[in-house]
Amino acid sequence: MSHIDAPRPAAFHRRFRRCDLNLLVTLDALFAEDGNVTRTADRLAISQSAASHALSRLREVFRDELFVRAGPRMVPTAFAMRLKPMIYEWIEGAERVLITAQPFDLRHAHSRLVVSVPEQIERMVMPPLMEHLFDVAPDIEIFVTPLPLGETLDALDAGQIDLAIAIGDAEFKPWHVAVLACETSFVQVYDPRLINGARPLKLECIALLPHLKVSYEPARNIVVDGYFERHGLTRRIAAGCAGAASVARMVAARPLVAILPALVARSFPQSAQLAVEPFGDDSLSLRVYVAWHRRSDRDDAHAYVRRCLARYLDDDYVQG
């Protein structure tokens, strides 16, 4: 572990909190004015007595005169000369932290982000994101890892991922930020050549058909199962898969029906032979969030990528 990651002891912070760091600013100004208190006061826009008092306090803190008279002028002591480069570096660092606000330069932004994107929608959001970043921010690197919803927040907390697309409501904590990107309805996908019946299929008929369940967590009671249960029905799961890439081929090979979010259905190739029909009523929908840990709020590259992802998930973008 590097020294920057090693926490300082609490005693250090308690002791350091009592220090008046403005005294170091005064000392830097005294160096700039060759120890002249009057000119230092003008530089700091304070009274001469305040500058003189600050110099007295500095002498007490460092137990050194710091500046002594040599004829008509003041000269720094040997101890003050040893302090000078350290005070200069401290002021430079403070300026970078507190004062200097460089505008975010997307073209030269360097960042490496690990993003959890469900496999069901990876094909929809990642190609346009990667193409866009290649053009406008070539040094922002994106690595995708699909995680089940139940593992996503822990991975954010542990720093294993930087950003996530979460399909469905999760137990977000106060230190998470979750922006609602869209709310998607559901569709039923099947091959009408393999499944007989009047179209669109009725809910009672659909429940009797063998189902292809699209989920990372097959044992989980997803919202579709709950919808059937609310109508006194239970669907029969005959097969399962984690992503949408194989749905079209699987329902074309066997008399299966797949019920999946309309957002997900957009990500697999459309076939004239497959029926893609609305499923359920207004009570059946799924929220899709772009989520991250608050520690990344002020990361400019991170903020840019999450805005892009939210845009690619938006209906207006997809349909436009």
Describe the structure.
Pfam families: HTH_1, LysR_substrate. It comes from Paraburkholderia caffeinilytica. Residues 20-77 form the HTH lysR-type domain. By secondary structure, this protein is an alpha/beta fold. The chain folds into three domains: 3-99, Winged helix-like DNA-binding domain superfamily/Winged helix DNA-binding domain (Arc Repressor Mutant, subunit A); 106-183 and 287-319, D-Maltodextrin-Binding Protein, domain 2 (3-Layer(aba) Sandwich); 186-284, Periplasmic binding protein-like II (D-Maltodextrin-Binding Protein, domain 2), CATH 3.40.190. The protein contains 13 helices and twelve strands. It has helices spanning 10-17, 22-32, 37-44, 48-62, 78-99, 119-136, 149-158, 203-208, 223-230, 247-253, 262-265, 300-313, 315-319; strands at 67-70, 73-76, 111-116, 140-144, 163-167, 176-184, 186-190, 210-214, 236-241, 257-261, 275-279, 286-293. Helix 6 (119-136) packs across helix 12 (300-313). The protein is rod-shaped and about 110 Å long. It starts with 9 loop residues before the first helix and ends with a helix.
